[in-house]
Design brief:
The protein has 219 residues and is α+β, with helices and mostly antiparallel strands. It is built from 3 helices and 15 strands.
């Protein structure tokens, strides 16, 4: 289509809500709930950048994080920062109140960056607040110098908690932990690794790394 990357989304907006031209906008035919094509002019390494729709659909994520300011200054700072998401394709369904990003997904807000094959957001239509975000396929979460990995991750918005599962692990420098699930508590800046059926967690710890971190703490 003239060198433009394409994605699709569902919307209840009337036809012709945005004129054709450069930038991002929907086009298509349909009834009350239409399937439309979301087009963005220009390419970014073979992918289109989700800009306007991501801002509208996930702005509530930032607002809901702001509501946590009573729980600490860290949550307030995090909640005031924008969310930037890039993906190959986006599907938004106003009836089911869901937004799905697919293909080389990257989501970043403040100090937290998440990578996955797919990202699925569930939100409430009344306040447009995101209840839960699920990432699937080659999930990686970078936060506070740590990298957590798994096949699936669920972000619980109200609790500010991320749970990774499916061969989950945690890496910090040369040290690593492997278990069944990794739980990241964003406000508390801590992580918990839980074992599988046998209740076992595998750890690879380099004493030198521990001593170096202890020396920095003692200074």
């Amino acid at each position: 289509m003239g060198g433009r990357d394409r994605g699709t989304f569902r919307t209840g907006e009337p036809r012709g809500s945005r004129p054709a031209g450069e930038g991002c906008g929907p086009e298509g035919e349909g009834g009350d709930t239409m399937t439309r094509t979301f087009r963005c002019g220009g390419r970014t390494a073979g992918r289109w950048r989700v800009c306007l729709l991501a801002l509208l659909a996930l702005a509530a994520w930032s607002r809901s994080l702001q509501a946590a300011e009573g729980k600490g200054a860290r949550a307030d700072v995090q909640g005031n920062l924008p969310i930037e998401i890039t993906a190959d394709r986006l599907l938004a369904d106003s009836v089911k109140e869901t937004v799905t990003f697919e293909g080389n997904v990257r989501a970043k807000q403040g100090e937290v960056t998440l990578f996955s094959d797919r990202l699925f957001a569930e939100y409430q239509g009344t306040g447009r607040s995101v209840e839960k975000i699920t990432a699937e396929g080659n999930v990686r979460v970078l936060h506070a110098g740590r990298e957590a990995r798994g096949e699936r991750a669920v972000f619980y918005n109200q609790e500010q908690r991320i749970v990774l599962s499916g061969g989950a692990g945690l890496v910090q420098g040369e040290d690593s932990l492997k278990g069944d699930t990794v739980t990241i508590f964003l406000q508390e800046n801590r992580s918990v690794v839980t074992g599988g059926e046998g209740g076992r967690v595998r750890a690879v710890i380099h004493p030198r790394g521990i001593l170096e971190r202890k020396e920095k703490t003692d200074r």
